[in-house]
Design a protein that fits this description.
mainly alpha
Amino acid sequence: MDLLRVAMVGAVGTPYQDGLFFFDLQLPPTYPDVPPLVHYHSFGLKLNPNLGVSGTVCLSLLDTFEGEGVEVWSPKMSTILQVVVSIQGLVLTAQPFYNDSSHEEYLGKPEAAHSEVLHAEDACLLTLRMMQHLLRRPPAGFEELVRRHFRRRGRFVLRACEAYLHKHHPVGTLDDEADATEVSSGRTCSAGFRLSLARFMPRLVEAFTTIGADGCEHFDRFLLALGASAGGHGLSSRPRTA
């Protein structure tokens, strides 16, 4: 077998929480002397600096990004499992701002705090758009997996959206049932994020309701806003207000 497809769930505590991400892997004829080729199903969305719109995955383990030592592919030591775990742990992270190598110098510096928040919020908004795209056009052979995942997790996605909208919880501070995991110490999500989320949430409720997701009836009130949002508000851009 030299062709594989990986379905990955975004980890709790990250902007990608409950998202579903697909990667196609091809093992070249000289594998394992060389790493697998990996293509990401982007749907034209730039969720992360390491995930290109064209489907490129920038990771030193794949020889698509600079690295050294254990960061690069080793024919004797490296595995496909290591590739998959690295994508989830090093790419789909809690703070995607630092996946851009030009931002590494700001790690831990107070002046970067606002940018960290905005990048996490943008990643969250794009992950929600990705959910809608997947429900419309799931990868071939994985249609039922996509529906099953969002039937089970849809209500928690919507609960998280409510927590952002009404309680102003920062992105990345919710557990797997969308309850707050920490006291935010005065931190809140931005007004621009809440505005974009409010515009898109009715469409997300509609998408989850269509597949019969558990608990969606508790969010029927958001469907009343669908008429007002029919003009096509998107999540690709938003006001940069704090």
